[in-house]
Amino acid sequence: MLFVKKDEQVKSLNRWTWCKCTCLHLTIFFISGGPVELLIKNKLNEALHPSHMEIVNESFMHNVPPGSETHFKILVVSEAFDGLPLIKRHRLVNTTLDEELKTGVHALSIVAKTPAQWSENPQQIESSPACRGGFGK
Amino acid sequence: MLAATRLLRTSALRSVRWCSVRVGSKEYFDDLVAQKKVVVFMKGTPNAPRCGFSNAVVQIFRMHGVEYNAHNVLEDETIRQGIKEYSEWPTIPQVYINKEFVGGCDILLQMHQNGELIEELQKVGISSALLEAETGQGDKSDK
């Protein structure tokens, strides 16, 4: 009798843990975006130690299947940009995400600011221009 | 007779030049970006851009009244990949002013917003239509 009870307890505990895990994973998925977005976030964090960062997956605005991770807009505020002209800041981000840009990420719109610029004018990330067809990639 | 020989010689020289330059090679792009003060590599054509970012570049240059050479990368995969390697820049559009790579849509937009574009154009002898409109208006208000 005792064993049965224990068994049931274990089962219900397992079910509860599974439920919690799934919920957690789903929450993480919806909050932090897909795997590519997460990878971009991690790589930029590691390379530029940004004081502020926003990543927007704009793929839904383009001629690609739903759930794609091909078009991104990123805002990075980092001390690493201090004293660098715009083109070099963009190159820094592009180099950091070189692998992603070669494999699946097709469009990357970048706003790169220094912490001083950011505190002067913290802007909302603007939406990119509307897609005009392209070739689905 | 002499003229005909000269013509033949120049056309022969030209064909040799074109034969020796492989499409998509560094020399090919060196030549392409030198053909005009402003050169744009984009998706689609200025009249029918096929991408929002390329369209933004077209609109900016239209506002400034700048004439430029546009190359549609969707027409030739060799150029599409080649220009990315040549500029070491992973995305299209790409803008060249006076043979120098300036950047893509984001950078051009920012240069347009902070007035840097007018300065860069002036450096290569192009007077922006926006600047002319501004001085024109200034004259009027002075009167």
Total count of strands of chain A: 3
Topology order of chain A in helix (H) and strand (E) letters:
HHEEHHEH
Rg of chain A, rounded, reads 21 Å
**Number of distinct helices of chain B:** 7
Helix-residue proportion of chain B: 55-70%
Q: Order of strands across the biggest sheet of chain B?
A: 4-1-5-6
Main sheet properties of chain B = 4 strands, mixed
Strand content of chain A: 5-15%
CATH superfamily of the largest domain in chain A: BolA-like
The separation of the N and C termini of chain A measures 63 Å
Going by helix content, strand content and strand pairing, the class of chain A is alpha+beta
CATH class call of chain B? Alpha Beta
GO cellular component, one term (chain A): iron-sulfur cluster assembly complex
Pfam families (chain A): BolA
InterPro entries (chain A): BolA, BolA-like_sf, BolA/IbaG_stress_morph_reg
Protein name (chain A): BolA-like protein 1
Question: Explain this structure to me?
Answer:
The complex is a heterodimer of chains A (137) and B (143). By secondary structure, chain A is an alpha+beta fold. Chain A has two domains: 1-32; 34-120, 2-Layer Sandwich (GMP Synthetase, Chain A, domain 3), CATH 3.30.300.90. In chain A, 50% of the residues lie in helices and 15% in strands. The radius of gyration of chain A is 21 Å and the shape is globular. The model of chain A has no long low-confidence stretch (mean pLDDT 82). In chain B, helix 3 packs parallel to helix 5. The N and C termini of chain B lie far apart (64 Å). Chain A: InterPro entries: BolA, BolA-like_sf, BolA/IbaG_stress_morph_reg. Chain A: This is BolA-like protein 1. Chain A: Belongs to the BolA/IbaG family. Chain B: This is Glutaredoxin-related protein 5, mitochondrial.
